[in-house]
Design goal:
Chain A is about 30% helix and about 20% strand. Chain A is of the alpha/beta class. In chain A, a hairpin with a 5-residue loop joins strand 1 and strand 2. Chain A is globular, with a radius of gyration of 21 Å. In chain B, helix 5 crosses helix 6, helix 6 packs across helix 7 and helix 7 packs parallel to helix 8. Chain B is an alpha/beta fold. In chain B, a hairpin with a 2-residue loop joins strand 11 and strand 12. The chains are: A alpha/beta, B alpha/beta. At the A-B interface, helix 7, helix 8, helix 9 and helix 10 of A face helix 8, helix 9, helix 10 and helix 11 of B.
Chain lengths: ~325, ~325
């Protein structure tokens, strides 16, 4: 198999607190992403999925810091890269689409100029040539009347149009990696479907690998090739999309799928996951999902209560961190 | 349930209701004809029967929240009527409105914004009892403790501040506050949209069991069709200020008639990896509409000439008076 576009190994990103403790937002994450692949990073708020994305982009700011781990983009070690090198890579080799489309654009710059900036800064095009490329890109992201809209400011756009601009900026230089952090969460479902389709198509055309950060399992089922499920700072399950929905291995994944209200599949009660996410300012000495787990092993000798479960690899890149999937002797 | 409702008559009726917002000068040139008003709710007829849950679904900006608030007298009515058990809301004075608000309460979307950060949880829940001067001080405290238990919180938490609760717990406090005066109607405006999926299921299960045990009437406003399906007896679909389709839940989901309802259903991402995005038909894009045309005509793939001439009104379908559609293409 070819080398991955993105390889993250044992990433730990912590946020230092005034009291000297640290919130372990990302606490040992491994991910691999190949060219043209769509990997969904799924989890609830506070699971560490956005911080993982920002860590890859080199956008974690104080009091956050990457404590440990490797991040490689096309084999290049990003943790050793200088700020200038990271700046050059962002936009050109890796790019990001954010959740709040209007908030991620400059409110006092015309959108055409914001797109053109990519070509001027990274490719040294003239302002005139860059503007022409910007209009072409607006057309590719299916913006109506692109030449005229290029002169608009962000406040003149709808949420969906603003996100089209965000996507145009991100894909302008055909990056190897596109990270989209809840790109359609703020938008209506019909617009969401259009934009997801557009992003997939653009990534497909340029062989861009897509890391889609989302909490929405419906979106995951529609677009992802593989899925990584995060809980409390750790990836608890990874699998190809069909396997994940058909045979979830981790009780948390199972609970997430079961708790969805799906139109046309009404049940008397939704299965809920009791309790809420644990505090992340202490190291875990047990499975971090154990207090909420419907399938935990009971009894005083239960491994669930005494040790973090090891990662157990299954077939074709799948795997999970759950004591139920080990042989229970403690040896994975 | 519906038999009882017919003999009792509706709890609330809305007749040809219009709610309009003044539009700033800057935004006026973007509307056809430079109108100075936006009709957020534009000629809505609706009946809420005692004990039923009516789901109101639509995209952002369709007027669903405005309609919910107008029902409670919280938005100025520019035309039409809201009738509370036959009494016109507009004829109620201050005392009449105060009495009404004992019977009708609102649960908001953002549990972080709907609690006063400087008011203890117990005080927030008690405030309605204080305002309406119900019982002795000791009675009220007892009632607050009961309400905490009712929504699944420990009464020991009454002295805590809002910031000490999670999002799901805050929403339970908001629900307890809304139920303190034993209202007949609860308007729930996107009550779980700000919550994680596993927590959404907890709050939806709670609302449904409360509704069943207390015989509440619910207007459940949401953009999420899965949630609407789970909660509702009947569903009304809103588009640009109008109700375009209304029917019993199963009829609407299994046999949607309005092209917009069908597009909305098709765009919902289902947690089914066999329904990939690429296999869905592309939705049409939005454009400004004239006031006389069907509001959906510019997006409708099936629109005919008459659709841009005159807006259809909500009419019962042939053979099923409970299923009503505002579309020229559907036989009345």
């Amino acid at each position: 198999m070819t080398a991955p576009v993105l390889e993250v190994r044992n990433l730990r990103t912590w946020f230092d607190q005034p009291d000297g403790r640290a919130v372990r937002a990302v606490d040992g994450v491994d991910l691999k992403l190949h060219a043209g692949e769509v990997l969904a990073l799924v989890g609830e708020s506070g699971s560490g999925k956005s911080v993982t994305a920002l860590s890859v982009m080199g956008l974690v700011a104080r009091p956050g810091r990457i404590v440990e781990g490797n991040i490689r983009l096309d084999g290049e070690d990003l943790r050793r890269a200088t700020p200038a090198r990271l700046q050059a890579l962002r936009g050109a080799r890796m790019a990001m689409v954010f959740q709040q489309p209007r908030a991620s654009l400059n409110p006092v710059q015309r959108i055409g100029d914001q797109i053109a900036e990519q070509f001027i800064r990274h490719q040294g095009l003239s302002r005139h040539a860059a503007s022409a490329r910007a209009i072409e890109l607006l057309e590719r992201v299916e913006m109506p009347d692109p030449a005229r809209r290029a002169r608009d400011y962000p406040h003149q756009l709808s949420g969906g149009q603003a996100q089209r601009v965000g996507i145009a900026i991100a894909v302008a230089l055909r990056p190897a990696l596109l990270i989209a952090d809840e790109p359609t969460t703020a938008l209506d479902v019909t617009v969401q479907a259009q934009l997801l389709r557009l992003m997939l198509q653009l990534c497909h055309e340029s062989g861009t690998a897509l890391l889609l950060v989302t909490h929405d399992l419906g979106v995951v089922a529609q677009v992802a090739d593989r899925v990584a499920v995060m809980y409390a700072g750790r990836v608890v399950e990874q699998a190809p999309v069909t396997a994940l929905f058909d045979q979830p291995q981790h009780p948390y994944t199972e609970g997430l799928i079961a708790s969805l209200a799906v139109p046309g599949q009404r049940r008397e009660r939704l299965i809920d996951i009791p309790g809420s996410v644990p505090a992340l300012d202490q190291p875990f000495s047990a499975c971090r999902f154990e207090p909420r787990c419907a399938r935990r092993i009971e009894g005083s000798g239960s491994p669930c209560r005494h040790q973090e479960p090891p990662w157990v690899s299954g077939s074709t890149g799948a795997g999970t961190a759950c004591w139920l999937r080990t042989d229970l002797s403690g040896n994975p | 349930m519906n038999d009882i409702a017919i003999t009792e008559g509706p709890l609330v009726s809305v007749r040809n209701l219009q709610v309009r917002y003044a539009i700033s000068h800057a935004a006026q040139d973007r509307l056809p004809g430079g109108r100075a008003w936006l009709n957020a709710v534009d000629g809505v007829d609706l009946d809420l029967l005692p004990g039923e849950t009516l789901g109101l679904v639509g995209e952002s900006g369709c007027g669903k929240s405005t309609l919910g608030r107008a029902l409670l007298g919280l938005r100025p009515i520019s035309r039409g009527q809201v009738l509370w058990q036959g009494r016109d809301l507009a004829t109620l004075g201050g005392a009449g409105l105060k009495a009404l608000r004992r019977q009708a309460q609102l649960v908001f979307q953002d549990p972080y914004a709907s609690l006063n950060p400087r008011e203890r949880a117990g005080d927030a829940v008690r405030s309605g009892l204080d305002i309406h001067d119900i019982g002795s001080r000791a009675d009220r405290e007892r009632r607050v403790a009961e309400l905490f238990e009712l929504v699944g919180l420990s009464p020991d938490m009454r002295q805590r501040w809002p910031h000490e609760f999670s999002g799901g717990q805050r929403q339970r406090i908001v629900i307890a506050r809304a139920l303190a005066l034993q209202p007949r109607l609860l308007v729930c405006d996107e009550p779980v949209s700000a919550l994680d999926v596993s927590i959404q299921a907890q709050v939806l299960n709670l609302l449904r069991s409360l509704q069943q045990h207390m015989g509440l009437t619910l207007l459940f406003v949401s953009h999420n069709l899965g949630v609407i399906d789970h909660m509702s007896d009947r569903i009304a679909v809103m588009y640009r200020g109008r109700i375009v389709e209304q029917a019993d839940r199963d009829a609407l989901l299994r046999d949607p008639q309005h092209p917009y309802t069908r597009a909305l259903l098709a765009a919902v991402p289902l947690p089914d990896p066999r329904r990939r995005l690429s296999s869905l038909p592309p939705p049409a894009s939005a454009a400004p509409v004239s006031q006389t045309a069907c509001p959906y005509a510019t997006r409708c793939e099936e629109a005919r000439a008459e659709c841009s001439m005159q807006a259809p009104s909500l009419r019962p379908m042939a053979g099923n008076a409970r299923h009503q559609v505002a579309c020229w293409l559907v036989a009345a």
